[in-house]
Amino acid sequence: MTATAGTTVGDATPTRILLVADEPSLVLTLTDRLVSEGYRVETAGDGNSALARAKETPFDLVLLDVMLPGKNGFDVCRDLRQRGVSTPVLMLTARTQVVDRVVGLKLGADDYLTKPFEMIELLARIEALLRRSRGPAATVTGTYTFGSVAVDFRRAEVTRDGVPLSLSALELKLLRYLIENRGLVVSRDELLDQVWGYDASAHTRTVDVHVASLRQKVEPQPGRPQFIVTIHRLGYKFAG
After folding, report:
1. pLDDT (tens digit, 9 = 90+) per residue, 28-54?
2. What is the torsional sign of CA 199, 205, 210, 212?
3. C or N: which end of the chain has fewer Cβ atoms within 10 Å?
4. Are β-strands 40-44 and 16-20 bridged in parallel, bridged antiparallel, or unpaired?
5. CA 237 to chain centroid
6. Collapsing DSSP states into helix, strand and coil, what is residue 203?
C-alpha cells in the first residue's frame, strides 16, 4: 500500500482517492496521472486491505478494480455499503457483459468504466462524481407525497406506508429531479447531465439501472410502474 500526495490549489485540501487495483502498470499509470491532476492518491492491492482502508480513512472517492485477489471489487463495494460507507465508488472492469456492470451498480457503485478506457474519460467521470457528492443542497424544500410514499426533502427521508425506505443519496437526487419536473418527459441525456453531472455524450446504462432500483422501492408494482413511467425512446416521466 502506498500513499502519494498530490498538489494543492491555494489553501484547498487535496481530494483523496483510494485506488484499488493489483496490476502494477495500471496502478503506476493512474497514480501518476491523478497526482499530476492535483489528487492525493493512496493505493490498496487487494480487496481485504481496501475494505479496511476505506472504513478507517475518509476518502473522497474509491476507484475500484473488479478483478482483485482475496475479495473481488463487487464484494468490496457491497461490504462498504453494508457498513455505512457512502464514499462514491467508480468501478473499473474488463468485463464486457452488461449484467456484470448492472451487478456493480446494484451493489452500490456510483458508476463504472470498462477497460481499456481513455484517461480523459476517467478524469471526467471522477470530476462528475466529486461534483455530485459535494453539490449544493436540494432546491426542493418541504415534503411531497405520491401514492403511499412521502418524501421529506429537508430531512432527506423517504417513507412508504410510514416505513422508512433506504434510498441512496443518488436515488434521492434522481427522485427529486423527477418530482421537480413532474408531468414532463425527461430524457436520459438530461438526467445524465443534471443528476450525474456527465456530458450527454457519455454512453452508460447507469440511468436505467438506477431508475429500475428506485422503482423497486417506491412503486406498488415495479413491473407496471405508475409513477416513474417510461416514455418509449424519449426517456421518463414522473406521473405522481
Report:
1. 999 999 999 889 999 999 999 999 999
2. positive
3. N
4. parallel
5. 22
6. coil
Q: Which of 8-17, 60-69, 78-87, 224-233 has the lowest mean pLDDT?
A: 8-17
What does the angle CA 57 – CA 58 – CA 59 come to, to the nearest 5 degrees? Answer: 105
pLDDT of residue 96: 64
**Strands annotated E in 75-202:** 89-93, 111-114, 143-146, 149-152, 157-160, 163-164, 185-186
Question: Residue 205: which residues within 8 A CB-CB, separation 6 or more?
Answer: 98, 101, 102
DSSP 193: I
Tell me what pLDDT residue 7 has.
35
Query: Quick one: which of 235, 237, 151 has its CA closest to 192?
Result: 235
Which of 1, 18, 28, 26 lies closest to 80 in space, CA to CA?
18
Query: Which cell is 65 given?
Result: 478494480
The span from the CA of 141 to the CA of 180, in Å, is 11
**How many contiguous H segments (helices) and E segments (strands) does the chain have?**
8, 13
Q: What is the pLDDT of residue 119?
A: 92
| Rounded Cα gap, residues 66 and 47, in angstroms | 9
Residue 42: what pLDDT? 96
- 3-state class of 4 per DSSP? strand
The mean pLDDT of 112-116, rounded to a whole number, is: 87
What mean pLDDT is reported for the chain?
85
CA-wise closest residue to 34 among 105, 107, 123: 123
